[in-house]
Design brief:
alpha/beta, 6-stranded mixed sheet, 6 helices, 14 strands, about 20% helix
Length: about 210
């Protein structure tokens, strides 16, 4: 059985998520942010083994915990859509706030569109949703009726496109042709702020209410 836990971290109100398989005691982290070592200690106390880090995109606040997590296990899987590889390799814009984020461990798996990830036999589908960044992806877990959506969409608003690699047209297409094809009851777990649903955003998000 899969479980998702939310860990709000840092002064940018990032949500780092842990996907846990209680049967196999395997875990994956989504977007390890500031202070992610706290999550690692939490998982170890419950006898979970961290198998993978999967990144929705490569902005610094979503990748800053990767280096510390990778020291946990040399064989830790690090997943990224390679359209964001250049952004990842240059620290995801961390220099803009005077943070040095050099020598991040290289990604070991390409998160291509419709790739199926496994965690103890459970299926997690990667959906490529560019716009906030070229390689932005979301992770859809049909069995849980849940999508982890990074910075694609938030409660009653959407991701910004004024950062490096942002593209308003691509974001619109990702929302219309990818996100809104998911069932209305789908829970949306964003990279910042509170969770929401497809139905809630269709009804009340001003960026989506008139989207055809």
């Amino acid at each position: 059985m899969l479980e998702i836990r939310t860990f709000p971290l840092g002064n940018m109100d990032n949500n780092t998520y842990a996907i846990l398989n209680s049967r196999t005691r395997e875990a994956a982290l989504i977007d390890p942010s500031f202070g992610s070592e706290y999550i690692l200690r939490n998982l170890e106390q419950e006898n979970y083994h961290l198998k993978a880090i999967w990144l929705t995109h490569a902005h610094f606040d979503h990748i800053i915990g990767v280096q510390e997590m990778a020291q946990y296990d040399d064989h830790l899987q690090i997943g990224l859509h390679f359209a964001d590889l250049g952004l990842y390799q240059t620290g995801g814009g961390a220099g803009l706030i005077n943070i040095s984020l050099d020598n991040l461990p290289a990604p070991t798996i390409a998160l291509d569109d419709n790739k199926i990830l496994g965690l103890g036999g459970r299926r997690i589908r990667v959906i490529h949703t560019p716009g906030h960044s070229p390689g932005h992806v979301i992770f859809y877990i049909a069995a849980l009726k849940t999508a982890l959506v990074g910075d694609l969409i938030f409660y009653h608003t959407i991701g910004r496109t004024d950062l490096e690699g942002g593209d308003p047209r691509a974001l619109f297409i990702s929302l219309r042709d990818k996100l809104l094809t998911l069932p209305p009851e789908t829970r949306l777990l964003p990279g910042h702020g509170q969770e929401t649903t497809i139905a809630e955003e269709r009804a009340n998000n001003p960026y989506l209410t008139n989207m055809k």
